[in-house]
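Example record

The entry below shows one chain as it appears in the dataset: sequence first, then structure tokens.
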Amino acid sequence: MKKNFINNILIGIIVVLCISICFLIFCIAKRPRYVETSEPETAVIAEIPESINTTASSTVNSDLPELPQTNDSKKDDSAKEHMQGKTSTRVNIRDRATEDAKVLDTVDEGTTFEIVEILDNGWTHILYDNTDAYISSAYVIITNE
């Protein structure tokens, strides 16, 4: 009697596990592979400072072609003046470039703003409601509109 009862419990557990595994496989197969957006994204390529570039040059393969360099500083200045960005998710806007700073506002995904400067410490200086503010660079998408 005991063996029969224990066997029935184990068979029940195995059936529940099999159903759970099948459900997980179904969910994985039906998950979205990419996110569609209505507006095109633009990529921004930042230049590496010369001091970093010279120290890393010994590890770079010499067979790779070099990228052309442009000296059009007017073009760079105008791009910096008109850099626009948007948030990639719901995020806090802060009054200083630290996680401990006062939260000025919490905005939803897709909120647009003007970028003043991208800082080296992982924060982006922005104009939000005509006020200097900061947002973590991890949540900024540069749109250059």
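Notes for this example: The CA atoms of residues 58 and 109 lie 41 Å apart. Strands lie at 84-87, 91-94, 103-107, 112-118, 123-128, 131-136, 140-142.
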